[in-house]
Design goal:
By secondary structure, the chain is an alpha/beta fold. It is built from 13 helices and 11 strands. The protein has a 6-stranded parallel beta sheet with strand order 8-7-6-9-10-11, with helices on both faces. A 5-stranded mixed beta sheet has the order 1-2-4-3-5, sandwiched between helices. Bound molecules: 1,4-dihydronicotinamide adenine dinucleotide (NAI).
Length: 357
């Protein structure tokens, strides 16, 4: 399908391609929606096999950001950007980041860039030398690494799952399997361990596994079998597209609630299949919104108390979505429905924005 066809199907407002002759930067910014406010979304730095793949990724991810922001009830839209690397593993440079910053600046604040795969706070700070419309840096831009807030929000989503099943939000003696011990996964383990949960962990990085064993007494699983671990709850916190029909048949957890973006291979099909098997699934883009709440909230000028209140609110939002899902095909469908309703509402009725620049 051509670009306009894909934009029409997904409802995008704007897709911008850019090349910078001096640095060789090639990048795309996709703004899905600004109906609820400026659109914040990460910049992904990746080597794509084809331009079509890059376009597909940025369109899909930016649409997801609109739903994430709307479910979190933030007065923000949804967008994402990708930098197309000519080959994988190319080291980042200040010149490249600054060229990307200038590109972001051309959108005059409709798009606020942030971190995603392949981008760190230093890259953000270099971008911020060229634009004010970027979050997640440590020196020039503000916000820093949002992962601790993502982990906290995911834990709030887990509490909601327990409540929905009529259980106490009590992790004492519960077993949680965590796939991926990166920024979010390790912090989630810390929170779960403090709450009394037993942990089963897997990561392809042996050092991280050793750290989790030392710090939390975690049981180790092979990365190839973590999804089939005997546990109460499974938390995918590594890559996306890890749960499809085969995995669903073999899951032994009764709850799936994790931070990874796009956990399900085909969200509509797989969320319905999980529901059919009686496995409770908390939509990833609802429970992993803590990082977005943190960066968007700071952008909007919210106080620390307000940011914490909104992160805690992920629990109620998840409960509401799981309740709605009783009369929908799945929690995924219920969450998308709520998000689309909010986006379609009269923009004048959206929350007041307090722009902090
Ligand atoms: P990260 O890159 O710090 O950690 C990912 C971890 O997964 C690494 O330790 C890596 O070795 C491990 N891993 C990769 N493949 C694996 C496999 N097959 N089996 C087991 N472990 C594997 O990433 P981060 O920031 O912790 O994010 C984790 C997930 O959460 C990603 O999907 C990300 O898109 C999503 N997310 C992160 C947010 C944040 O605030 N950092 C916000 C929202 C979503």
């Amino acid at each position: 399908m051509n670009t306009f066809g894909q934009m029409i199907e997904r409802g995008h407002e704007r897709v911008c391609f850019h090349q910078d002759a001096d640095t060789g930067l090639r990048a795309i910014i996709a703004i899905h929606s600004t109906r609820r406010g400026s659109a914040l979304g990460g910049t992904r730095r990746w080597h794509y096999a084809t331009e079509e793949e890059a376009l597909f990724d940025v369109l899909r991810l930016s649409e997801g950001m609109s739903y994430k922001a709307a479910c979190a009830n933030l007065p923000m839209g949804g967008a994402k950007s990708v930098i197309l690397l000519p080959e994988s593993g190319l080291p980042r440079t200040q010149a490249e980041a600054r060229a990307m910053g200038r590109f972001v600046d051309t959108l005059s604040g409709d798009y606020i860039a942030a971190e995603d795969v392949g981008i760190d706070p230093q890259f953000i700070d270099w971008m911020a030398l060229e634009t004010n419309h970027v979050m997640g840096g440590e020196t020039v831009a503000s916000g820093g690494d949002p992962s601790p807030f993502t982990a906290k929000g995911t834990f709030n989503g887990m509490k909601a799952c327990l409540q929905h099943l009529g259980r106490q939000a009590d992790f004492d003696g519960m077993t949680v399997a965590v796939q991926g011990l990166g920024h979010v996964g390790m912090d989630l383990c810390r929170i779960l361990h403090t709450a009394g949960a037993k942990l089963i962990v897997a990561d392809i990085n042996a050092d991280r596994v050793r750290d989790a064993v030392d710090a939390f007494g975690a049981e180790v699983s092979d990365p190839s079998s973590i999804l089939q671990a005997q546990c109460d709850m499974l938390a995918p916190c590594a890559l996306g597209a890890v749960i499809g029909p085969d995995e669903i048949r073999r899951l032994r957890a009764s709850i799936v609630c994790g931070a990874a973006n796009n956990i399900l291979v085909d969200p509509e099909r797989d969320a319905a299949a999980l529901a059919e098997r009686g496995i409770l699934y908390a939509p990833d883009f609802v429970v992993n919104a803590g990082g977005l709440i943190w960066l968007a909230g700071l952008w909007l000028g919210m106080s620390r108390e307000e940011l914490d209140r909104r992160n805690d609110g992920i629990e109620d939002t998840t409960i509401e979505i799981l309740e709605r899902a009783r009369s929908a095909a799945s929690p995924h469908h219920a969450a998308i429905e709520i998000a689309r309703q909010r986006i379609a509402e009269d923009p004048a009725s959206k929350e007041e924005t307090v722009h902090a620049g």
